[in-house]
Design a protein that fits this description.
Layout lengths: L1 E3 L3 H11 L5 E3 L4 H5 L24 E6 L5 E7 L9 H9 L1
Parallel strand pairs: 1-2
Antiparallel strand pairs: 3-4
Pfam families: AhpC-TSA (PF00578)
InterPro entries: AhpC/TSA, Thioredoxin-like_sf
Protein name: Alkyl hydroperoxide reductase subunit C/ Thiol specific antioxidant domain-containing protein
């Protein structure tokens, strides 16, 4: 599944545009993002014109979590990295 801080209708539109076959969950309250430490929430960002666009947005992140709820893999990139190669994630999933 995917998690986004966008509202549900935006997630639906995004999933349709990309042809995703898995659910995108809305984290409007940013609780999941904070729990996984991928939220840009430093208040000083709000006063920096270069950082305002990402304040309260999330880092691009992938987590592979096994059936027991244990995180087996983490990949976090900057927001400018649109879609880095997923070979390492796919390799972890093959082993699961």
């Amino acid at each position: 599944m995917g998690v986004s801080v966008d509202f549900n209708d935006a997630n639906i539109a995004w999933a349709e545009k990309l042809g995703l076959t898995y659910p995108l969950l809305s984290d409007m309250r940013r609780q999941v993002s904070k729990s996984y430490d991928v939220l840009y929430d430093d208040p000083e960002m709000a006063s920096d014109p270069k950082k305002v666009p990402i304040y309260l947005r999330t880092k691009r992140a992938w987590f592979v979590i096994d059936k027991e709820g244990v995180i087996q893999f983490v990949k976090i990139t900057t927001p400018r990295d649109f879609q880095p190669p997923n070979d390492d994630i796919l390799e972890v999933l093959k082993k699961s």
